[in-house]
Amino acid sequence: MKKYNKLTKCLLIAVLATFSLSSCSLKDKKTSDSTTEATVTTEATTEVTTEATTDKATASDASLKDDIESKLNLKDGTYSASFDTDSSMFHINEAYDGKGILTVKDGVGTMHIVFPSQRINQLFFGVSEDAQKDGAKLIQPTIEKVTYSDGSVEEVNSFDIPVPYLDKEFDLALIGDKGTWYDHKVKVSKPMPANEASANDASETDSAKNSGLDDDQYLVPVTLEGGSGKATVDTPTLIQKTDTGYLVTLTWSSPNYDYMIVDGEKYLPVNTEGKSVFEIPFSDLSAPVNVIADTVAMSKPHEIEYTLTFDMSEVE
Question: What is the reported pTM?
Answer without folding.
Answer: 0.47
